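Re: weekly structure request thread

Next one in the queue (377 aa):
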Amino acid sequence: MRHQKQDRPLLFCTLIAAVFLVLIGVDRSAPFLLPLDAFFFRPWEYMMGAFRYNIPRTERMLQISGYGDLANLLGVPTYRVPRLYTWTNDRYGKRNATVIQNEHPAIVVVGDSFMASAADPDEKTFVTQLQQHVEDSVYGYVPSDMSLFLRDQRFLKNPPKIVLWGRAERNTLGSNGEIETLLADTSCFSNTTRKDRFVKSSKDFVKAMIGDFVEYTQLSILRRTMQQSLKHMIYVWTGQHTIVVTIVPEDTMLFLDRGLAILSSPGSARGFDRVADAVAHVRDCLEARGTRLIFMPIPDKEHIYASRIGREPLSPDPLLVLDAALEERKIAHVSLVKRFQEESGSGKDLLYWLDDTHWNARGIGVAVEEVMKKLEE
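Done, posted below.
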């Protein structure tokens, strides 16, 4: 009997160790067995290489079921809007459906996740919808910063006729890192040497080669499941949730806390003179190459649907203050804020996804209509 009692702690520890080993084995084998939507809630993170040094995948098409970024942050399933995503990257790692992978386009679209249409499938993206309205060839250099586009040898050798540059409102501040990079430039980014380009391409090549392994080590089905389950349980039991997301009582639309913070900032406090100076610099760089620039600030969801959050609009509207700064510098631009406010009225279809920070196919379509007016001037 004494030996049996002494064996019990050892048996217990062995069982605990076995359970942990099984869990680890399941966790490490899961990426090989489960579909990608078990780990990724939308294609962006996978296709743009969020877990592999931000090296995007090339010549790849992905189709998965998913939902919005705000719903993912919140972790409450009832707020998710399920949808099927189809996402295609070309051989340069830019999002372009197969039918618009133009090597020498007349119009190049540059910009952030809004211009990449991160919340929509290939057939509804901004680039796809714009191509349906123009005869000239369109190419999406998205997602990407303008400073990277200006450095790109492809478009130095074959400059397009028009560059359409779109930036979300929250990324259009004088303190934004990309704006500061553009303001610091003195040579239109032509001072990068062949050696610098070789070093960068070599680093990117090495990162791409080992990127899949690095990504695999970060994929954990247990962590993913437990994080979402914990967020949901805390919300059910306490009504508390992440402060990054704002929920309005009796409303299904989610809002980004950062967007609300920016909403309270008047145009005079947003550094728009710096933004306009940076855009003017880009315009001058492109004009020297024979390319026309059109700039398009994109209103945040919180800006357009401020009334659903119980906020009164600022006067003057901050984006109209930016418009004035752009006009003062004679910068061709597309103003969306008034049209979006008109289209967001009662009884009209939404312009943004309920569960996402980004615009939806209708919002994209309205923006394309405004761009067409500018192109036809």
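The chain has 15 helices and eight strands. The radius of gyration is 24 Å.
Next request, please.
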